[in-house]
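Why predict the complex rather than its parts? Because the way molecules touch one another can change local conformation, and only a joint prediction can capture that. The input here totals 636 residues.
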Amino acid sequence: MSQRKKGAFSSEGGIRQSSRDRWVVVLSYIFVGVFALMCLYPLLLTLTVSFTSESLIARDGYRLIPEAFTADTYTYIFAHSGVRILRSYGVTLLVTVVGTLMSMLVTCLISYAISLKEMRYRNVIAFICNFTSIFSAGLVPWYVVCVNWYHLANSIWALILPAMFSVWNMFLMRTYFRSISPSLYDAAKIDGAGHWKIFFSIALPLSKTAILTVGMMYLLSYWNNWWNALMFISDRDLYPLQYYLYSIVSNVNAISSGRIPAGAAATIRLPSETVKMAVTIITIGPIIFLYPFIQRYFVRGIMTGAVKE
Amino acid sequence: MERAVKKKKQGFLWEMQHNGALYIMCVPALILLLMFSYLPMGGMYMAFTKYNVVDGIFGSPFVGFQNFTFFFSGNPYAWNVIANTLILNFWGIIFGTILPVSLAIFMNEIRNGPFKKISQSAMFFPYFLSWVVVGAILYGFLTSNFRVDRKTGELILTGANGVANRLLVFLGQSPIRWYAEPKYWKAIIIFINVWKWAGYNSIIYMAAMTGFDGSLYEAATIDGASRFQQITHLTIPMLKPNVVILTLMSIGRIFFGDTGMIWGVVGQNSTVLDAVNVIDTYVYSSMRTMGFGFSTAIGLCQSIMGLIMICLANSVAKKINDGEGLF
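Output of the joint prediction:
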């Protein structure tokens, strides 16, 4: 922060320097601007293509500003597979809401406990958590245990339980809890409050922004998770939105590689170009609308995590 | 001091009596770790068996190191997927450091508030997209529908073409069937990975830059240093420790590929997959084709190599950082 202010000071102060330094500033604008466009352009393209008619796309290819806009694709999608998409939306919403709430409860509890200096074995528990991030059993044992022992195949819990606890988020939350002054806890203790009471009536209410920050991180990871669906879900009724999109796009990729014989390709009905883009937009829709509001929480979370290192 | 010593002497039971509630708070998370991280470690025993579903993990016949020797000697894929993983990660680390550091430095030079805000929002946005969505968006760039007429050699568009091909045609080049040409895909995957994480990583570097001592820049300005000299003599040297730590963390994970990225972007396209098949995706696909014992063995090798690399990276970090490791 302070550096930015000084920077502003220096550029105001040295008028003679400004002409010498101008090329650095110009280069900065160009570099940042070009990369920002590279990030924005694909999204805008996807959006406008989803509002273009199929025949225009076939004639002109993908272009940012089509000759005419139409919402035909969306009416088509909702007429033909509206139920399917709404169902996937429902699965994703349920998993995201229930998952985030459960994750937050579990994460807040453990990170509060090990944030306290008076807990003697806190480092042992921190190590138990940390070890899982430096050594893992690998995909196959994890899969076998999930399917054979916990029976997660084709269960909605397969989309929630394996993703429920993130060690990274736990350490982030612990950093926030540590910033609460211990004197507040001591005062409560003198009044006879136990650990549970202190947790619910002091630690949690004081950590609202932290809870929002870490909650958003879980929210996004549940919303974007399609890997667990790929591993465990074969029942179409349980497809989350992301996996529904995956099932459309990955089929198309395989067919356009040309390795599938032409006869077989002809029998598989390809979703049209605009449909793919429209489903993409439907999948990221809520994120686009929420993005301006949630972005700062992520920035804060990343910064807190970075400073911790 | 005396009290602290006294506390040390109080045993396990004392701790449980007074802080038992705190340990109960840890239980749900520890159960999840046990279920999804520690119990599967027991399942690694499968690597030494010829696993079948009926007999289960511990009932299947023991075969010793057969799965391992088969992977490393009888299998042309082994070195291929290991090389792919290392190549993708190597270039990912190089470009994934240069781009975010440059972005952070240049962002710092920009004084226009709205421009800064909007461009940062734009740069950060790819982080919010899942790999499936990125794959779908990439499709809009790379899709190709054309054929070359055998007699006249003329190019006939047979459907929608993506942005990349339209650009090639515009420049007078011939279009490319991207999804049938494996040779481009290492570059595409490296590019898309760097693109997705650049905004995120630049925030980390910007966070580090907010902690820099402003008086150094003030002094440099008074001494007549230009903005460019300030960048090369102050900002970059001060960013170095952060760059080193982040790079070491990536090196610690150099044997791990991003399955989500590969599957999300390449999908089930086996033609292209050969070029970007990493250890993780190979484990996934060999699970179905080569059996669980074999794929567990590969995963076990990968985990052990990963552990060694992380410990090496950690000890290097400790040496550089005055005893402060990565974890």
